Input
Amino acid sequence: DIVMTQSPDSLAVSLGERATINCKSSQSVLYSSNNKNYLAWYQQKPGQPPKLLLYWASTREFGVPDRFSGSGSGTDFTLTISSLQAEDVALYYCQQYYGTPPYTFGQGTRLEIK
Amino acid sequence: EVQLVQSGAEVKKPGESLKISCEASGYSFTSYWIGWVRQMPGKGLEWMGIIYPGDSDTRYSPSFQGHVTISADRSISTAYLQWSSLDDSDTAMYYCARHEGGSSSWLDYWGQGTLVTVSS
Output
């Protein structure tokens, strides 16, 4: 199984500042035939199901604010929130969907306001 | 509008059986894989397995293989997750979610979750 490791486990950022969450996979999730990274990011607020933010590592889901962006390739990925808003307080998860199942998640990163 | 509506919370005793459901609407149920994700209290997300309702092809995570069964009823656009014998460690929130395109894809729509509590 591909192991996904996020860092940090928790993060406190001031309103309006940049937040950066990292995700590392135990093997590459870049599929060479289409040059796509099989990685998604989700946001989960308390008492709610997860919500898709990004797929193909950097493509925003419809309706997701453009302050959310994704980067990286192969085994190392980053979710960046360019200017933190109060409503961004949540847990964030990366997930790989490369090849055959299981399609594992990272352990999650808790984002709070400083 | 795509919707996944899950069955209500359950309280069970160890050793009991259980089947929870996920009713899909707003899209062609037989054309998308549906997966199940576990979230134990205060913990992260765990991918359990998926089913393609079109032909009932099912894949499981090794961590869950043999302990749960995923099924689907095309006639009522509903997917299921079932246990034959629950134990305390099955206490968790369970989400169904649609894989956007093919099994190897992201989860674009999620159910609201079903809380399963197993306690003697």
